[in-house]
Amino acid sequence: MGTDAGWVDRLDVDRIEEAASGCVIGRRVVVYQSTRSTNDIAWEYAKGAESDGLVVFAEEQSGGRGRRGNKWLSSAGQSLLCSVIVSGVSAGAELLTLASAVATAEAIREYAGVSARIKWPNDVMVGGKKICGILVESRAIAGRKVFVVGIGINCHQGEDFFGSEELRMPGTSVDLAMGEVCDRNELAGVLLRKLDVWVGKMQADEKAVIDGWGRLSSQLGEYVTVEHNNRRYSGICAGVDPVEGLILRLDGGAVRMFEAGQTTIVKHS
């Protein structure tokens, strides 16, 4: 799997829009060859009243950002990098993050045939290695609550990439997980259809999102250590609350919730 693999599947607006036909998410798609951040571009589009469901893709981004100031590392054509505009929903960013994680994990599972799982709050893992990160941002625009869901999926990176970069956790790619070169346009289509389904479910049935997260979680029922405000806590993961965050039954018997913005998973068994 060479470093040029990404350029055999250049992102194609027509193919992606056709795959998302009938969906709100993906009814309009734009592709940039290079940008600082797809989230930044999406926020510009979000100023328009008819922007709900628009998706910005990029072959390369120089300033892709992740949770808590982390950077998303990727060479041109190697990842599926996109940002989705979601507006007109009553749910908060926390529930949208969970719904987006479920949708993305399901998309990877369906397309690649691998057991993708969710590491709370916003990573998708395959075989204990990170394959995808999600960042949900929110703003008020002209009296509307608007979200931008940024998603980065490793696609064509080889073992040499993960061995040479300074990564926060072990990583993998769709190619490595499948054992063959993937088609990012096909994966993009599956991803947008799954996002459309799960954003719809989020608005109709909050419990369905929580149940979906529990089904795909890599932590539910596991012994977990988290870092919260520079202190560490350990216990059994009992679930997730869409507003309050991760629920742990601590070693001392108490039950506590840890909000995503101030909490990092240190390790789990």
TrEMBL record:
Species of the source: Anaerohalosphaera lusitana
PROSITE patterns: BPL_LPL_CATALYTIC
Domain named BPL/LPL catalytic: residues: 14-203
Database matches in PANTHER family: BIOTIN PROTEIN LIGASE (PTHR12835), BIOTIN--PROTEIN LIGASE (PTHR12835:SF5)
Keyword annotations: Ligase
GO molecular function: biotin--[biotin carboxyl-carrier protein] ligase activity
UniProt keyword Transferase, yes or no: no
Gene Ontology cellular-component annotations: cytoplasm
Gene: birA
Name under which the protein is recorded: Bifunctional protein BirA
